[in-house]
Write a structure and sequence with these properties.
The chain has two domains: 2-78 and 316-340, no CATH class; 84-309, 3-Layer(aba) Sandwich (Rossmann fold), CATH 3.40.50. Helices cover 41% and strands 20% of the residues. The chain has helices at residues 14-35, 39-45, 56-72, 107-121, 147-156, 168-183, 232-241, 275-285, 295-306, 319-340; strands at residues 2-3, 75-82, 87-93, 127-133, 137-144, 215-221, 246-251, 257-262, 265-270, 289-292, 311-317. The strands form three sheets. The chain has a six-stranded mixed sheet, sandwiched between helices. The chain has a three-stranded antiparallel sheet with strand order 1-2-11. It has a two-stranded antiparallel ribbon with strand order 8-9. The longest helix has 22 residues, at 14-35. The protein is elongated and about 100 Å long. Residues 187-204 have low confidence and may be disordered.
Length: 345
Amino acid sequence: MTFARPLLLLALLALPLAVAAYFLLERRRARYAVAFTNLDVLASVASSGRPWRRLVPPLLALVALALLCAGLARPHTRTLVADERATIVLVLDVSASMEAEDVEPTRLAAAQAAIRAFLDRVPEQIRVGLVAFAGDPQVASPPTRDREFLLGSLDRVAQFPGFSGTAIGDALALAVEVGQQATGESGGTGDDDPDGETIAWRSAAPAPETEGSLVSILFLSDGAQTRGFLQPWEGAQQAREAGIPVYTVSLGTPEGIVTREFDGIVRTIPVPPDPVTLSEIAETTGGRFYEAETAGTLEDVYRRLGSSLGRTPGEAEATAWFLGGAGAALFAALLAGALWSPRLP
């Protein structure tokens, strides 16, 4: 914790003066009690066996004074501060497998609810975009601060399921492009290394430093790549080269299924998630990987990310908390004094 006006902390020197004044008054009261000759009345106003109660009001008043003195110095705490330049691109799998009911009520409905919870935590000054994908990715909403427009776009993606295929690599590349356009940044999107050799998933090079990136991608999928021009590792490499961390979420259970009718025959199709690929994407780009097999777990993940993405380390003023605490302590001191102070009969 730091203070904008540290010299005002000298006001805390008033605390020992207040303690000294309290004990001085107590000594004067003791001398008055000895001089008071009506012992029956004195006994009626004396403590009834709980002498600690007499100390509570002055201790609370002392706490209030300390908080007030510290608040005058304008304290600041280290925290994550929303960056109004930041952009978050949500990428949502809307392929037919998202109709699976192993995550109640369906995978897609659970994902939509989690995104709404995410938006409740994201500050309004941060722009959020939405990319929906199945066999082909589409920009459902460009990065915007208009939450109503974004929520409307999220509701409309419900018409997308039924599309076949899962193009993870293409969806990643489109999300990178959307994020770069939103921030006016550009970078290389080559699929090969400088020597012309294919880049493997697990490169010996460490993940890039992405703490100061203005763009973050939150990518949710429930299956393995089945379509698309780019492989997942190629899309991840584009994000890595752009310095964009990708936070991936694998949704669903290995027992997930969907039913489809082919030529009058109903078939049950297994649709297990692919956590390995999504974990590799997060590792390659410097993001984090999450696995969610229930709607509750998924919502918890999105709430946590909604409280951290689009923010940078900074300081927030805590003066109001100190002043509020001082007011609460003073009120408690007055209340305790009114309840426990001795009264004349």
